[in-house]
Write a structure and sequence with these properties.
The chain is 21% helix and 29% strand. The chain is α+β, with helices and mostly antiparallel strands and 243 residues long. Strands 1, 2, 3, 4, 5, 6, 7, 8, 9 and 10 form a 10-stranded mixed β-sheet that branches. Helix 3 (137-144) crosses helix 4 (195-207). The protein is globular and about 60 Å long. The relative contact order is 0.18.
């Protein structure tokens, strides 16, 4: 039995998230069906984490066990031959039997993309949140600084509690602008449910001048989801990298 590690990219628009659900198209089921068709086995893939409906991935990491004799060097092309164009395998490696994409993930990088132009390019409507208010990206960047480090992120967690603890460590958080596009990059040792989208919604409120920059630190200390901004829409969110 071999253990394979895959890096997978997908456009989440037409998927009901990562996790298999009855009567819904999901990334997990699509990938398992493709690999199973190739290897003639019942395959279960294990992901570094679940993504919600409409959320995209550039570098999702998964692993699966198989009796196949197909070498890892041939696996990418072989699996992709059985996949639709909105999900592709970009890399494959044979790894140690004990490797687990979920348990062995030590940090993840997410990117949230916003367009604050007067109109949204129709070719970007699936991949950016259109904010109809002009945003101050520098103000958003300064407001985000108190979130870096180890904190209880209860204020940015939907449906609390859904984890044993709300304490996480944000290792990197930046806000950048090019033209009418702003992106928020957040790398952490783990994420709570809707954490990135809640942070994005909060920083948007700062960027539009609805809240002062100091409000973000106050929200963090409050440990109350009701104090934070709205959960930003899913189409702007990308899982960029898993380490």
């Amino acid at each position: 039995m071999s253990n394979f590690k895959l890096t997978v990219s997908y456009d989440g628009t037409d998927f009901s998230g990562w996790q298999t659900q009855p009567a819904h198209r999901t990334v997990q089921e699509t990938l398992e069906t493709a690999i199973g068709t190739l290897t003639h086995e019942t395959i279960r893939v294990n992901a570094s984490g679940r993504t919600d409906s409409g959320v995209h991935a550039v570098g999702q990491v998964v692993n699966f066990h198989s009796e196949t004799r197909i070498p890892a060097t041939s696996m990418v092309r072989a699996i992709n031959a059985h996949l639709s164009g909105d999900v592709v395998v970009t890399a494959c490696a044979q790894v140690h039997d004990t490797f687990d994409a979920n348990r062995d993930a030590i940090r993840k990088l997410y990117r949230y993309v916003i367009c604050d132009g007067a109109t949204l390019n129709p070719f970007m409507r699936r991949y950016a949140h259109h904010c109809r208010h002009s945003l101050d990206a520098m103000s958003m960047r300064r407001a985000a600084l108190p979130l870096i480090g180890e904190h209880d992120f209860h204020s940015f967690e939907t449906d609390w509690p859904n984890r044993a603890t709300s304490v996480r460590t944000i290792l990197h958080l930046s806000v950048n602008r090019v033209g009418e596009y702003i992106w928020i990059d957040i790398e952490a040792d783990g994420f709570l449910y809707n954490m990135v989208r809640a942070i994005a919604g909060t920083l948007i409120n700062v960027g539009r001048g609805f809240w002062p920059e100091s409000q973000v630190e106050a929200i963090l200390r409050a440990e109350d989801r009701r104090q934070a901004g709205p959960t930003a829409p899913p189409e702007g969110l990308f899982l960029m990298r898993v380490t």
